[in-house]
Write the structure tokens for this entry.
Amino acid sequence: MKQAIFPGIVGSAAAAGLGMATDRRVDRDYGMGGMGFVRRWGSAFGQNAVGQFVGDFALASAFHQDPRYHPDKKKGFGHRMGHALAAVVVTHSDSGKSEFNSSQLIGIAAAAGASTAWHHSSDRSGKYFAERFAYGVSFSAGYKVISEFLFYRNEPRN
């Protein structure tokens, strides 16, 4: 719940603003102005909430995966950047072993599918689903990079 609410509210507002500023085709039918922003924000927030619930709660529990981000223990920008980006596809199991991050990627796909379903009919297609999935993966990677270099900047490193 905490992840869905915050940073979900801020992240979805940023996504809505970015989508509006670039006039992304994937949600152009929401229009411009205040109402267009609110519609984009609601859609982005809903997409984030579905992804969090499905990927970070339901499937992570079912697959015995740890959905939390764990900062890199090594020093150096390259190591840390690589670790943050790899965390999109690699996670820890409940036993601590590294494994494919199926829960998060399926959660992102579920979120993209839900978002595609509630968009206007002109914005529902496999192409737009793929674009929403790619945005979801990109935002996940971006959040992990921000976490590594901002939230975990003072972690002890080897």
Summary: Helices lie at 2-5, 8-22, 33-63, 77-86, 102-118, 126-151. The chain has a mean pLDDT of 88.
